[in-house]
Amino acid sequence: MATSAPAARTNIAAALTDLLLTPGLELTEAVDRHFAPDYRQRTDGRWDDRGEFMAHIAHLRTIVASGSVQVLDELAQGDRYADRHIIDVAKADGSTVRTEVYLFGEFAPDGRFRRIEETTLMIEGADADRNLGSAR
To answer: In this predicted model, what pLDDT tens digit does every residue of 110-121 receive, in sequence order?
Structure first.
Protein backbone atom coordinates (compact mmCIF):
# COMPACT_ATOMS: atom_id res chain seq x y z
CA MET A 1 0.00 0.00 0.00
CA ALA A 2 1.44 3.38 -1.00
CA THR A 3 2.03 5.92 1.75
CA SER A 4 2.36 9.67 1.48
CA ALA A 5 5.78 10.92 0.45
CA PRO A 6 8.05 12.48 3.08
CA ALA A 7 9.43 15.98 2.54
CA ALA A 8 12.87 14.74 1.48
CA ARG A 9 13.51 11.45 -0.28
CA THR A 10 16.71 10.04 -1.60
CA ASN A 11 17.23 8.95 -5.18
CA ILE A 12 19.72 6.68 -6.88
CA ALA A 13 21.99 9.42 -8.22
CA ALA A 14 22.43 10.95 -4.74
CA ALA A 15 22.93 7.52 -3.16
CA LEU A 16 25.53 6.32 -5.67
CA THR A 17 27.36 9.64 -5.57
CA ASP A 18 27.71 9.41 -1.77
CA LEU A 19 28.51 5.69 -1.77
CA LEU A 20 31.13 5.58 -4.54
CA LEU A 21 32.00 9.01 -5.90
CA THR A 22 32.57 11.21 -2.83
CA PRO A 23 36.10 10.64 -1.52
CA GLY A 24 36.38 11.15 2.21
CA LEU A 25 32.72 10.43 3.03
CA GLU A 26 32.73 7.62 5.60
CA LEU A 27 30.90 4.47 4.46
CA THR A 28 28.52 4.24 7.42
CA GLU A 29 27.51 7.89 7.02
CA ALA A 30 26.90 7.43 3.29
CA VAL A 31 24.79 4.31 3.86
CA ASP A 32 22.85 5.88 6.75
CA ARG A 33 21.90 8.88 4.56
CA HIS A 34 20.19 6.77 1.92
CA PHE A 35 19.32 3.31 3.30
CA ALA A 36 17.00 2.30 6.14
CA PRO A 37 18.21 -0.02 8.93
CA ASP A 38 16.16 -2.92 7.47
CA TYR A 39 17.46 -2.35 3.91
CA ARG A 40 17.64 -5.34 1.54
CA GLN A 41 18.86 -5.46 -2.05
CA ARG A 42 18.59 -8.00 -4.84
CA THR A 43 21.07 -7.57 -7.68
CA ASP A 44 20.86 -9.93 -10.64
CA GLY A 45 18.97 -12.45 -8.49
CA ARG A 46 21.15 -12.32 -5.36
CA TRP A 47 19.64 -10.97 -2.12
CA ASP A 48 21.82 -9.06 0.37
CA ASP A 49 20.92 -7.59 3.74
CA ARG A 50 22.25 -4.19 4.80
CA GLY A 51 25.50 -5.64 6.20
CA GLU A 52 26.19 -7.60 3.01
CA PHE A 53 25.38 -4.51 0.97
CA MET A 54 27.87 -2.49 3.01
CA ALA A 55 30.54 -5.16 2.43
CA HIS A 56 29.85 -4.88 -1.32
CA ILE A 57 30.20 -1.07 -1.26
CA ALA A 58 33.36 -1.28 0.86
CA HIS A 59 34.87 -3.57 -1.78
CA LEU A 60 33.83 -1.28 -4.64
CA ARG A 61 35.43 1.68 -2.85
CA THR A 62 38.78 -0.13 -3.10
CA ILE A 63 38.56 -0.49 -6.89
CA VAL A 64 36.56 2.56 -8.08
CA ALA A 65 38.72 5.64 -8.71
CA SER A 66 36.02 7.89 -10.18
CA GLY A 67 32.81 7.79 -12.14
CA SER A 68 29.47 9.32 -12.98
CA VAL A 69 25.78 8.43 -12.84
CA GLN A 70 23.36 9.33 -15.61
CA VAL A 71 19.68 8.81 -14.79
CA LEU A 72 17.79 8.04 -18.00
CA ASP A 73 14.32 7.42 -16.53
CA GLU A 74 13.04 7.96 -13.00
CA LEU A 75 9.64 7.62 -11.36
CA ALA A 76 8.60 7.94 -7.73
CA GLN A 77 5.03 7.42 -6.63
CA GLY A 78 4.05 7.02 -2.99
CA ASP A 79 6.58 4.66 -1.43
CA ARG A 80 7.65 3.19 -4.79
CA TYR A 81 10.65 4.15 -6.91
CA ALA A 82 11.86 3.02 -10.33
CA ASP A 83 14.70 4.14 -12.52
CA ARG A 84 17.00 3.26 -15.36
CA HIS A 85 20.50 4.63 -15.05
CA ILE A 86 23.98 4.26 -16.46
CA ILE A 87 26.99 4.25 -14.20
CA ASP A 88 30.41 4.87 -15.72
CA VAL A 89 33.33 3.81 -13.54
CA ALA A 90 37.05 4.36 -13.91
CA LYS A 91 38.79 1.73 -11.85
CA ALA A 92 42.00 2.21 -9.90
CA ASP A 93 43.77 -0.11 -12.39
CA GLY A 94 42.94 2.29 -15.25
CA SER A 95 40.21 0.18 -16.86
CA THR A 96 36.65 1.42 -17.31
CA VAL A 97 33.22 -0.14 -16.93
CA ARG A 98 29.86 1.14 -18.18
CA THR A 99 26.75 -0.51 -16.77
CA GLU A 100 23.06 0.11 -17.39
CA VAL A 101 20.84 -0.64 -14.39
CA TYR A 102 17.10 -1.27 -14.25
CA LEU A 103 15.93 -0.64 -10.68
CA PHE A 104 12.71 -0.95 -8.68
CA GLY A 105 12.66 0.15 -5.07
CA GLU A 106 10.62 0.93 -2.00
CA PHE A 107 11.07 3.88 0.35
CA ALA A 108 10.90 3.66 4.14
CA PRO A 109 8.64 6.28 5.77
CA ASP A 110 11.69 8.52 6.38
CA GLY A 111 12.51 8.71 2.65
CA ARG A 112 15.47 6.33 2.61
CA PHE A 113 15.50 3.17 0.52
CA ARG A 114 14.09 0.12 2.31
CA ARG A 115 14.43 -2.26 -0.65
CA ILE A 116 15.97 -2.23 -4.10
CA GLU A 117 15.73 -4.92 -6.75
CA GLU A 118 17.90 -4.36 -9.80
CA THR A 119 19.16 -5.99 -12.94
CA THR A 120 22.44 -4.89 -14.46
CA LEU A 121 23.63 -4.95 -18.05
CA MET A 122 27.31 -4.31 -18.68
CA ILE A 123 27.64 -2.15 -21.79
CA GLU A 124 31.44 -1.79 -21.79
CA GLY A 125 34.15 -3.49 -19.77
CA ALA A 126 36.09 -6.69 -19.30
CA ASP A 127 34.33 -10.02 -18.77
CA ALA A 128 35.80 -10.06 -15.24
CA ASP A 129 33.72 -6.96 -14.43
CA ARG A 130 30.35 -8.53 -15.26
CA ASN A 131 29.69 -9.20 -11.57
CA LEU A 132 30.70 -5.69 -10.41
CA GLY A 133 27.11 -5.07 -9.27
CA SER A 134 27.45 -7.74 -6.57
CA ALA A 135 31.24 -8.17 -6.18
CA ARG A 136 32.79 -8.39 -2.73
So the answer is: 999 999 999 999
